[in-house]
Design goal:
The chain is mainly β and 114 residues long. The protein is built from no helices and 11 strands. It is globular, with a radius of gyration of 13 Å.
Length: 114
């Protein structure tokens, strides 16, 4: 059974940092590209970042490029999203996903507000 569990969401002030984690199970982790997506209040899902199977390539949406860093540890079946320079418009529920298996976690709430 494929499971993706996100943790790390919180309330943070503008300019602050957060680190999100995704723990995966139920599939051969190192074989799949993984992504982070987010859903802001009242909006649809938006792609944030993707990482290749070995972690050698990362791609980012223009809105987060230079502020967020995606990484993975294939020995621990985990993926992270390091977020810096947070802005109110980053407020959203963040999900880790396995696009090929069409699975995503339950999400973790990130709120950026003073």
């Amino acid at each position: 059974q494929v499971q993706l569990v996100e943790t790390g969401g919180d309330l943070v002030q503008p300019g602050g940092s957060l680190r999100l984690s995704c723990a995966a199970s139920g599939f051969t982790f190192c074989n799949y590209v993984l992504t982070w997506v987010r859903q802001a209040p009242g909006k649809g899902l938006a792609w944030v970042a993707s990482i290749s199977t070995a972690g050698s390539r990362a791609d980012y949406s223009d809105s987060v490029k230079g502020r967020f860093t995606i990484s993975r540890d294939n020995t621990k079946n985990t993926m992270t999203l390091q977020m810096t320079g947070l802005r109110p418009e980053d407020t959203a529920v963040y999900y880790c996903t396995n696009p090929q298996l069409e699975r995503q976690g339950q999400g973790t709430q990130v709120t950026v507000s003073s």
